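Re: that backbone. C-alpha cells:
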C-alpha cells in the first residue's frame, strides 16, 4: 500500500450525521412530527417498512457517540438540528428541545470537537406541510427564516459554522417529482417551485441569522451532479446537460444572482408566476463557505418515456461488470471529485469549499473479528488521495467529513444500507468501529498538526 498523503495542518477532519437518521427520541421532549415521520407511516414508502422513531437512539446515547468520535480522532462534527424539536407549532421556542442540543454541544466542547450545524436536513415540520403545502408554499420559506433566527439567538454563541439547507435538490426533486422522498409527490413543475422556495428559504435564513449575529460563518450544502453523456451523439450530450442544469444550475445560479436557464423556466411553466423577480436578489446572500457532498457520477442518455421527456434526460444504470460499485449500486468514481469541483468553479465563483459528505454503502456484517468493510476502505482511500492531489494543485478545500459516523436510517432504503464507519446493531444499539474507522483514525492522527 502506498503512503497516505499529507494534508495541510489546518485541514479539518470530521464526520457527519443528520437528525432524522440517527436521533430517534421522536416522541420525546415536545418534538413534533416531521414530513418524514408521516412518509414512513405510509405503506410501501420505506423498503423495510421502518421509521425514525428510535433510529440509532442518539437522543439518549449522544454522550457515548461523542466519546466515540473523539476516540476515532475526529475534531469536527457536522450534524443537523431538527426544526421539529426546537420550534413549537405556534413558532415559539421549545426549551426541552433546545436543551438537547445544548447538552450535545457541551459534550462536543468537552471533547474539543468543533460543531458544524445544518438547519434543514429534510425534516420539515408536518404542520407546515398540511397548512401550507410545505415547500410549495412561500410561507414555508418565511417560517424557515424565523426558525433560523431562533437558533441564532438560542444556540448561535456556540456555533461557529452553520449551513442553512442540506441538498435542496433532494427535498425538491426526490420529494416532488420522483416521489421517493417525503412528501412523495410526482409533479415536475411542483418540484421546480419547491426548489425555488428552498433557495428563497436559504436567502431569507441567512438574512435572518445575520440580523441576530454577525460572527457565524454561514453557507449551504449542495450535492452537485457530475453527469457524463452515454455517447458522443448530440441527444445524449444534451441529456447530460439537462441533468446538470436541473441538479446544479437551479441551485447554484440563485446563489450568485443568476436566473435559471431558459429550459428550467420552461419546465416550471405557469407555476413560475409565483416567483417574484426580487427573490433572486434575496437568494444571493454572501456565502462564507460552500459544503459539497460527493458520492458518485451519473451517465445520461436521451429521454424515452413521457416522464423522461419532461425532464429531458434518463439515467443509465452503471454496469457492475465494467465499473466498481458500492453496495447501494453507486459507481466508485474518485476522479469525479476533482472533475465536479473544477467544473463548478468554471461556472460559478465559489467561496472556500468543505467536503461535507463523502462515503460508501458497505453492508459487511460484524463478525468475530470485527467488521472488515473493504469496499468502504477502498472508497475512502481513493477519494482522499484524490482530494490531497487537488489541494496540492491549489483547489481551496478546507475540510473533509465522512458520511457517516454511524450506520443509520437511509431514507427510502430504511436500515438496509449501511453508510457508517461505525456499525450499529439496531437490536442492541451496540456500536462497533469498522476497519475503515480504525484506518481513518490512523490517518487523521498521523497528519501534521
Ligand atoms: C445526503 C444525505 C445523507 C444520505 C447520504 C447517503 O445529504 O444525501 O445527507 O442523508 O444518507 O447521502 O445517501
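Recovered sequence:
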Amino acid at each position: 500500500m502506498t503512503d497516505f498523503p499529507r494534508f495541510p495542518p489546518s485541514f479539518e477532519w470530521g464526520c457527519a450525521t443528520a437528525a432524522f437518521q440517527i436521533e430517534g427520541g421522536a416522541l420525546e421532549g415536545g418534538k413534533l412530527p416531521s414530513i418524514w415521520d408521516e412518509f414512513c407511516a405510509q405503506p410501501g414508502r420505506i423498503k423495510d417498512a421502518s421509521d425514525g422513531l428510535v433510529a440509532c437512539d442518539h437522543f439518549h446515547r449522544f454522550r457515548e457517540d461523542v466519546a466515540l468520535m473523539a476516540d476515532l480522532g475526529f475534531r469536527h462534527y457536522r450534524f443537523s438540528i431538527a426544526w421539529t424539536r426546537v420550534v413549537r407549532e405556534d413558532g415559539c421556542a421549545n426549551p426541552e428541545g433546545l436543551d438537547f442540543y445544548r447538552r450535545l454541544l457541551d459534550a462536543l466542547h468537552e471533547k474539543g470537537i468543533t460543531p458544524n450545524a445544518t438547519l434543514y436536513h429534510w425534516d420539515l415540520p408536518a404542520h407546515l406541510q398540511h397548512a401550507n403545502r410545505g415547500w410549495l408554499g412561500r410561507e414555508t420559506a418565511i417560517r424557515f427564516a424565523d426558525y433560523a433566527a431562533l437558533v441564532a439567538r438560542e444556540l448561535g454563541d456556540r456555533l461557529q459554522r452553520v449551513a442553512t439547507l442540506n441538498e435542496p435538490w433532494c427535498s425538491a426533486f426526490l420529494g416532488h417529482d420522483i416521489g421517493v422522498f417525503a412528501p412523495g409527490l410526482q409533479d415536475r413543475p411542483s418540484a421546480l417551485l419547491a426548489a425555488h422556495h428552498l433557495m428563497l428559504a436559504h436567502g431569507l435564513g441567512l438574512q435572518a441569522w445575520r440580523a441576530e449575529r454577525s460572527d457565524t460563518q454561514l453557507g449551504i450544502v449542495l450535492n452537485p451532479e457530475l453527469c457524463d453523456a452515454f455517447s458522443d451523439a448530440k441527444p445524449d450530450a444534451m441529456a447530460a446537460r439537462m441533468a446538470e442544469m436541473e441538479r446544479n444550475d437551479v441551485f447554484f445560479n440563485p446563489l450568485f444572482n443568476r436566473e435559471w436557464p431558459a429550459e428550467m423556466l420552461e419546465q416550471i411553466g405557469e407555476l413560475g408566476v409565483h416567483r417574484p423577480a426580487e427573490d433572486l436578489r434575496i437568494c444571493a446572500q454572501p456565502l462564507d463557505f460552500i459544503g459539497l457532498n460527493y458520492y458518485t457520477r451519473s451517465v445520461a442518455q436521451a429521454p424515452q418515456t413521457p416522464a423522461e421527456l419532461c425532464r429531458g434526460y434518463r439515467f443509465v444504470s452503471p454496469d457492475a461488470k465494467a465499473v466498481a460499485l458500492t453496495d447501494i449500486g453507486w459507481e466508485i468514481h474518485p476522479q469525479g471529485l476533482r472533475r465536479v469541483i473544477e467544473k463548478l468553479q468554471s461556472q460559478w465563483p465559489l467561496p472556500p469549499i468543505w467536503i461535507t459528505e463523502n462515503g460508501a454503502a458497505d453492508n459487511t456484517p460484524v463478525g468475530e473479528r470485527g467488521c472488515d468493510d473493504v469496499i468502504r476502505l477502498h472508497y475512502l482511500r481513493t477519494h482522499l488521495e484524490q482530494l490531497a492531489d487537488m489541494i496540492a494543485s491549489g483547489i481551496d478545500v478546507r475540510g473533509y467529513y465522512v458520511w457517516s459516523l454511524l450506520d443509520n436510517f437511509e431514507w427510502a432504503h430504511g436500515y438496509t444500507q449501511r453508510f457508517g464507519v461505525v456499525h450499529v446493531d439496531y437490536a442492541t444499539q451496540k456500536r462497533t468501529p469498522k476497519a475503515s474507522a480504525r484506518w481513518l483514525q490512523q490517518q487523521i492522527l498521523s497528519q501534521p498538526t
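The CA atoms of residues 229 and 237 lie 5 Å apart. Residues 18, 21, 166-167, 223, 293, 357, 403, 410, 419 surround D-gluconic acid (CB under 6 Å).
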